[in-house]
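[09:14] KT: can someone run the structure on this one? pasting the chain below
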Amino acid sequence: MKRMFASATLKLTAWYLLILVTISILFSFIIFEISTSEISNRLERLQIRVEGSSKSITLPGPVTLNDIRVNQTKEAKTSIFIGLVYMNLAVAGLGGIGSYLLARRTLKPIEEAHEAQSRFTSDASHELRTPLAVMKSEIQVAMREPNLKAADYRELLESNLEEVDKLTQLSQSLLQLSRLDYDNVERSDRVDIEKSIKKAARSLRIPTSRLQITLPEHQVSIDGNDSMLGDLFRILLDNAAKYSPPDSPISLTLSSNGRSCKLVISNQGEGIAAKDLDKIFNRFYRGEKSRSSNDYTSGYGLGLSLARKIVRLHEGSITATSKPGKVTAFTLILPQVRKNR
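[09:31] RB: done, C-alpha coordinates below
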Protein backbone atom coordinates (compact mmCIF):
# COMPACT_ATOMS: atom_id res chain seq x y z
CA MET A 1 0.00 0.00 0.00
CA LYS A 2 2.86 2.39 0.81
CA ARG A 3 4.35 1.70 -2.61
CA MET A 4 1.00 2.51 -4.20
CA PHE A 5 0.75 5.87 -2.42
CA ALA A 6 4.42 6.63 -3.16
CA SER A 7 3.70 6.07 -6.85
CA ALA A 8 0.53 8.17 -6.64
CA THR A 9 2.50 10.95 -4.94
CA LEU A 10 5.07 11.02 -7.73
CA LYS A 11 2.36 11.02 -10.39
CA LEU A 12 0.48 13.83 -8.69
CA THR A 13 3.75 15.75 -8.25
CA ALA A 14 4.46 15.36 -11.97
CA TRP A 15 1.00 16.65 -12.87
CA TYR A 16 1.30 19.63 -10.52
CA LEU A 17 4.76 20.41 -11.90
CA LEU A 18 3.60 20.03 -15.50
CA ILE A 19 0.74 22.46 -14.91
CA LEU A 20 3.05 24.92 -13.14
CA VAL A 21 5.76 24.77 -15.80
CA THR A 22 3.20 25.07 -18.60
CA ILE A 23 1.74 28.19 -17.02
CA SER A 24 5.23 29.57 -16.39
CA ILE A 25 6.31 29.01 -20.02
CA LEU A 26 3.07 30.52 -21.32
CA PHE A 27 3.53 33.65 -19.22
CA SER A 28 7.22 33.78 -20.17
CA PHE A 29 6.26 33.77 -23.87
CA ILE A 30 3.75 36.55 -23.27
CA ILE A 31 6.27 38.57 -21.25
CA PHE A 32 8.96 38.05 -23.92
CA GLU A 33 6.67 39.20 -26.73
CA ILE A 34 5.36 42.23 -24.86
CA SER A 35 8.80 43.27 -23.60
CA THR A 36 10.65 42.91 -26.90
CA SER A 37 7.83 44.65 -28.78
CA GLU A 38 7.87 47.56 -26.33
CA ILE A 39 11.68 47.88 -26.54
CA SER A 40 11.62 47.75 -30.33
CA ASN A 41 8.91 50.42 -30.52
CA ARG A 42 10.72 52.70 -28.09
CA LEU A 43 14.03 52.39 -30.00
CA GLU A 44 12.22 53.02 -33.25
CA ARG A 45 10.57 56.18 -31.86
CA LEU A 46 13.93 57.30 -30.49
CA GLN A 47 15.54 56.80 -33.91
CA ILE A 48 12.82 58.89 -35.57
CA ARG A 49 13.24 61.72 -33.07
CA VAL A 50 17.02 61.71 -33.48
CA GLU A 51 16.84 61.67 -37.27
CA GLY A 52 14.35 64.55 -37.25
CA SER A 53 16.43 66.59 -34.87
CA SER A 54 18.35 69.60 -36.15
CA LYS A 55 21.35 68.56 -34.12
CA SER A 56 23.95 66.46 -35.92
CA ILE A 57 25.20 63.22 -34.34
CA THR A 58 28.57 61.75 -35.22
CA LEU A 59 28.50 57.95 -35.57
CA PRO A 60 31.57 55.69 -35.65
CA GLY A 61 32.43 54.49 -39.15
CA PRO A 62 29.70 53.43 -41.52
CA VAL A 63 27.25 52.60 -38.65
CA THR A 64 23.75 54.04 -39.01
CA LEU A 65 21.09 54.73 -36.42
CA ASN A 66 19.07 51.85 -37.85
CA ASP A 67 22.00 49.46 -37.26
CA ILE A 68 22.26 50.64 -33.68
CA ARG A 69 18.52 50.13 -33.14
CA VAL A 70 18.61 46.62 -34.61
CA ASN A 71 21.63 45.62 -32.50
CA GLN A 72 20.10 47.03 -29.31
CA THR A 73 16.87 45.19 -30.05
CA LYS A 74 18.74 41.89 -30.55
CA GLU A 75 20.74 42.36 -27.33
CA ALA A 76 17.58 43.17 -25.37
CA LYS A 77 15.81 40.08 -26.76
CA THR A 78 18.77 37.88 -25.88
CA SER A 79 18.99 39.30 -22.36
CA ILE A 80 15.25 38.90 -21.75
CA PHE A 81 15.30 35.36 -23.18
CA ILE A 82 18.18 34.27 -20.92
CA GLY A 83 16.50 35.86 -17.89
CA LEU A 84 13.26 34.04 -18.62
CA VAL A 85 15.10 30.73 -19.08
CA TYR A 86 16.72 31.09 -15.66
CA MET A 87 13.39 32.10 -14.18
CA ASN A 88 11.68 28.99 -15.62
CA LEU A 89 14.46 26.74 -14.34
CA ALA A 90 14.01 28.26 -10.87
CA VAL A 91 10.25 27.80 -11.13
CA ALA A 92 10.75 24.16 -12.17
CA GLY A 93 13.14 23.49 -9.28
CA LEU A 94 11.19 25.23 -6.54
CA GLY A 95 7.92 24.13 -8.12
CA GLY A 96 9.05 20.51 -8.03
CA ILE A 97 9.68 20.71 -4.29
CA GLY A 98 6.43 22.58 -3.70
CA SER A 99 4.49 20.16 -5.91
CA TYR A 100 5.82 17.16 -3.99
CA LEU A 101 4.92 18.72 -0.62
CA LEU A 102 1.47 19.65 -1.94
CA ALA A 103 0.95 16.12 -3.32
CA ARG A 104 1.91 14.61 0.03
CA ARG A 105 -0.44 16.99 1.83
CA THR A 106 -3.24 16.15 -0.61
CA LEU A 107 -2.82 12.39 -0.37
CA LYS A 108 -2.04 12.15 3.35
CA PRO A 109 -5.69 12.20 4.56
CA ILE A 110 -6.59 9.63 1.90
CA GLU A 111 -3.65 7.43 2.89
CA GLU A 112 -4.54 7.68 6.58
CA ALA A 113 -8.18 6.86 5.83
CA HIS A 114 -7.12 3.90 3.69
CA GLU A 115 -4.82 2.59 6.43
CA ALA A 116 -7.55 3.03 9.04
CA GLN A 117 -10.03 1.21 6.81
CA SER A 118 -7.57 -1.63 6.23
CA ARG A 119 -6.91 -1.99 9.97
CA PHE A 120 -10.61 -1.79 10.70
CA THR A 121 -11.44 -4.47 8.10
CA SER A 122 -8.68 -6.73 9.39
CA ASP A 123 -9.75 -6.34 13.02
CA ALA A 124 -13.43 -6.77 12.20
CA SER A 125 -12.70 -9.90 10.18
CA HIS A 126 -10.76 -11.37 13.08
CA GLU A 127 -13.50 -10.59 15.59
CA LEU A 128 -16.19 -12.04 13.30
CA ARG A 129 -14.15 -15.15 12.61
CA THR A 130 -13.77 -16.10 16.29
CA PRO A 131 -17.46 -16.72 17.19
CA LEU A 132 -18.08 -18.34 13.82
CA ALA A 133 -15.18 -20.73 14.40
CA VAL A 134 -16.55 -21.60 17.85
CA MET A 135 -20.00 -22.32 16.43
CA LYS A 136 -18.58 -24.41 13.61
CA SER A 137 -16.38 -26.51 15.89
CA GLU A 138 -19.23 -27.18 18.34
CA ILE A 139 -21.57 -28.25 15.54
CA GLN A 140 -18.91 -30.49 13.99
CA VAL A 141 -18.27 -32.19 17.33
CA ALA A 142 -22.00 -32.73 17.82
CA MET A 143 -22.39 -34.23 14.35
CA ARG A 144 -19.61 -36.75 15.03
CA GLU A 145 -21.31 -37.93 18.22
CA PRO A 146 -24.25 -40.25 17.37
CA ASN A 147 -25.49 -40.67 20.95
CA LEU A 148 -26.18 -37.05 21.91
CA LYS A 149 -29.08 -36.52 24.29
CA ALA A 150 -31.67 -33.77 24.22
CA ALA A 151 -29.85 -31.98 27.04
CA ASP A 152 -26.66 -32.01 24.99
CA TYR A 153 -28.44 -30.51 22.01
CA ARG A 154 -29.97 -27.85 24.25
CA GLU A 155 -26.53 -26.99 25.62
CA LEU A 156 -25.18 -26.76 22.07
CA LEU A 157 -28.01 -24.46 20.97
CA GLU A 158 -27.57 -22.23 24.04
CA SER A 159 -23.86 -21.96 23.32
CA ASN A 160 -24.56 -21.08 19.68
CA LEU A 161 -27.11 -18.49 20.76
CA GLU A 162 -24.46 -16.85 22.94
CA GLU A 163 -22.18 -16.61 19.93
CA VAL A 164 -25.04 -15.22 17.82
CA ASP A 165 -25.65 -12.57 20.49
CA LYS A 166 -21.97 -11.64 20.32
CA LEU A 167 -22.14 -11.35 16.54
CA THR A 168 -25.29 -9.22 16.84
CA GLN A 169 -23.60 -6.94 19.35
CA LEU A 170 -20.53 -6.62 17.14
CA SER A 171 -22.54 -5.89 13.99
CA GLN A 172 -24.59 -3.23 15.79
CA SER A 173 -21.42 -1.55 17.07
CA LEU A 174 -19.85 -1.65 13.61
CA LEU A 175 -22.97 -0.14 12.03
CA GLN A 176 -23.07 2.61 14.64
CA LEU A 177 -19.40 3.44 14.09
CA SER A 178 -19.96 3.53 10.35
CA ARG A 179 -22.96 5.83 10.78
CA LEU A 180 -21.00 8.19 12.99
CA ASP A 181 -18.16 8.27 10.46
CA TYR A 182 -20.24 9.22 7.44
CA ASP A 183 -23.60 10.66 8.54
CA ASN A 184 -24.36 14.22 9.49
CA VAL A 185 -25.29 14.30 13.15
CA GLU A 186 -28.16 16.49 14.32
CA ARG A 187 -27.41 18.34 17.54
CA SER A 188 -30.64 20.23 17.95
CA ASP A 189 -31.74 18.74 21.30
CA ARG A 190 -31.48 20.50 24.63
CA VAL A 191 -30.21 17.66 26.81
CA ASP A 192 -30.47 17.63 30.60
CA ILE A 193 -27.25 15.84 31.63
CA GLU A 194 -28.56 14.63 35.00
CA LYS A 195 -31.69 13.08 33.47
CA SER A 196 -29.70 11.48 30.64
CA ILE A 197 -27.21 9.91 33.09
CA LYS A 198 -29.95 8.52 35.33
CA LYS A 199 -31.83 7.16 32.31
CA ALA A 200 -28.66 5.41 31.12
CA ALA A 201 -28.09 3.91 34.58
CA ARG A 202 -31.67 2.58 34.67
CA SER A 203 -31.32 0.99 31.23
CA LEU A 204 -28.20 -0.83 32.46
CA ARG A 205 -29.98 -1.86 35.68
CA ILE A 206 -27.20 -0.48 37.83
CA PRO A 207 -28.41 -0.37 41.45
CA THR A 208 -28.92 3.18 42.67
CA SER A 209 -26.98 2.20 45.80
CA ARG A 210 -23.82 1.95 43.68
CA LEU A 211 -24.19 5.42 42.19
CA GLN A 212 -22.67 8.38 44.00
CA ILE A 213 -23.79 11.40 41.98
CA THR A 214 -22.51 14.90 42.80
CA LEU A 215 -24.40 17.68 41.01
CA PRO A 216 -24.12 21.47 40.92
CA GLU A 217 -26.88 23.60 42.39
CA HIS A 218 -28.28 24.54 38.99
CA GLN A 219 -29.45 22.34 36.12
CA VAL A 220 -26.81 21.57 33.48
CA SER A 221 -28.05 21.23 29.90
CA ILE A 222 -26.16 21.17 26.61
CA ASP A 223 -26.96 21.42 22.90
CA GLY A 224 -26.49 17.95 21.47
CA ASN A 225 -28.00 14.75 20.21
CA ASP A 226 -30.07 13.19 22.98
CA SER A 227 -29.82 9.64 21.64
CA MET A 228 -26.07 9.75 21.14
CA LEU A 229 -25.38 11.32 24.52
CA GLY A 230 -27.49 8.56 26.07
CA ASP A 231 -25.30 6.00 24.26
CA LEU A 232 -22.21 7.82 25.52
CA PHE A 233 -23.29 7.68 29.16
CA ARG A 234 -24.37 4.04 28.81
CA ILE A 235 -20.97 3.08 27.42
CA LEU A 236 -19.08 4.79 30.23
CA LEU A 237 -21.39 3.55 32.99
CA ASP A 238 -21.36 0.02 31.58
CA ASN A 239 -17.57 0.17 31.42
CA ALA A 240 -17.40 1.36 35.03
CA ALA A 241 -19.74 -1.41 36.19
CA LYS A 242 -17.98 -4.19 34.28
CA TYR A 243 -14.49 -3.39 35.48
CA SER A 244 -15.23 -2.98 39.18
CA PRO A 245 -16.46 -5.28 41.99
CA PRO A 246 -20.27 -5.72 42.03
CA ASP A 247 -20.80 -3.80 45.28
CA SER A 248 -18.22 -1.07 44.76
CA PRO A 249 -19.38 2.54 44.24
CA ILE A 250 -19.47 4.32 40.88
CA SER A 251 -18.85 8.01 41.34
CA LEU A 252 -20.22 10.68 38.98
CA THR A 253 -19.28 14.33 39.48
CA LEU A 254 -20.90 16.96 37.26
CA SER A 255 -19.84 20.61 37.18
CA SER A 256 -20.30 23.60 34.89
CA ASN A 257 -18.72 27.00 34.31
CA GLY A 258 -21.53 28.25 32.05
CA ARG A 259 -19.62 27.66 28.81
CA SER A 260 -18.90 23.95 29.19
CA CYS A 261 -19.73 21.11 31.52
CA LYS A 262 -17.38 18.58 33.05
CA LEU A 263 -18.38 15.04 34.00
CA VAL A 264 -16.04 12.68 35.84
CA ILE A 265 -17.06 9.00 36.04
CA SER A 266 -14.83 6.92 38.31
CA ASN A 267 -14.85 3.38 39.64
CA GLN A 268 -12.73 1.13 41.83
CA GLY A 269 -11.13 -2.00 40.41
CA GLU A 270 -8.05 -3.45 38.78
CA GLY A 271 -7.66 -0.32 36.68
CA ILE A 272 -5.89 0.26 33.40
CA ALA A 273 -2.17 -0.29 32.90
CA ALA A 274 -0.17 2.80 32.00
CA LYS A 275 0.87 1.26 28.67
CA ASP A 276 -2.81 0.86 27.71
CA LEU A 277 -4.09 4.31 28.65
CA ASP A 278 -3.25 5.96 25.34
CA LYS A 279 -4.69 3.03 23.35
CA ILE A 280 -7.99 2.22 25.02
CA PHE A 281 -9.91 4.54 22.67
CA ASN A 282 -8.63 2.70 19.58
CA ARG A 283 -11.07 0.42 17.81
CA PHE A 284 -10.89 -3.24 18.85
CA TYR A 285 -8.19 -2.51 21.41
CA ARG A 286 -8.44 -4.38 24.69
CA GLY A 287 -5.88 -4.70 27.43
CA GLU A 288 -4.53 -8.14 28.22
CA LYS A 289 -6.78 -8.59 31.27
CA SER A 290 -9.87 -7.70 29.28
CA ARG A 291 -9.16 -10.50 26.83
CA SER A 292 -9.94 -13.09 29.48
CA SER A 293 -12.97 -15.30 29.33
CA ASN A 294 -14.67 -13.69 32.34
CA ASP A 295 -18.16 -12.44 31.62
CA TYR A 296 -17.58 -9.02 33.16
CA THR A 297 -14.70 -8.35 30.79
CA SER A 298 -16.29 -9.65 27.62
CA GLY A 299 -16.51 -7.26 24.69
CA TYR A 300 -14.96 -6.26 21.41
CA GLY A 301 -13.12 -3.09 22.33
CA LEU A 302 -15.53 -0.84 20.42
CA GLY A 303 -17.34 0.92 23.28
CA LEU A 304 -14.71 3.50 24.15
CA SER A 305 -14.03 4.12 20.47
CA LEU A 306 -17.73 4.91 20.04
CA ALA A 307 -17.62 7.13 23.13
CA ARG A 308 -14.71 9.16 21.78
CA LYS A 309 -16.43 9.54 18.41
CA ILE A 310 -19.63 10.83 20.04
CA VAL A 311 -17.65 13.27 22.20
CA ARG A 312 -15.75 14.62 19.18
CA LEU A 313 -19.00 15.06 17.24
CA HIS A 314 -20.12 17.25 20.14
CA GLU A 315 -16.84 19.22 19.95
CA GLY A 316 -15.74 17.98 23.36
CA SER A 317 -12.92 15.92 24.81
CA ILE A 318 -12.57 12.69 26.78
CA THR A 319 -9.57 11.52 28.78
CA ALA A 320 -8.83 8.59 31.08
CA THR A 321 -6.67 8.30 34.18
CA SER A 322 -6.05 5.22 36.29
CA LYS A 323 -4.27 4.07 39.41
CA PRO A 324 -4.27 0.26 39.06
CA GLY A 325 -5.94 -1.41 41.98
CA LYS A 326 -7.42 1.87 43.24
CA VAL A 327 -9.44 4.10 40.94
CA THR A 328 -10.07 4.66 37.23
CA ALA A 329 -11.68 7.87 36.00
CA PHE A 330 -13.00 9.10 32.66
CA THR A 331 -13.32 12.85 32.29
CA LEU A 332 -15.73 14.39 29.77
CA ILE A 333 -15.74 18.05 28.80
CA LEU A 334 -18.63 19.12 26.57
CA PRO A 335 -19.55 22.63 25.35
CA GLN A 336 -22.98 23.66 26.55
CA VAL A 337 -23.88 25.66 23.42
CA ARG A 338 -23.07 24.75 19.81
CA LYS A 339 -20.59 27.10 18.14
CA ASN A 340 -22.75 27.53 15.02
CA ARG A 341 -26.00 28.02 16.87
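[09:33] KT: thanks! The longest strand covers residues 327-335.
[09:34] RB: yep, looked fine to me
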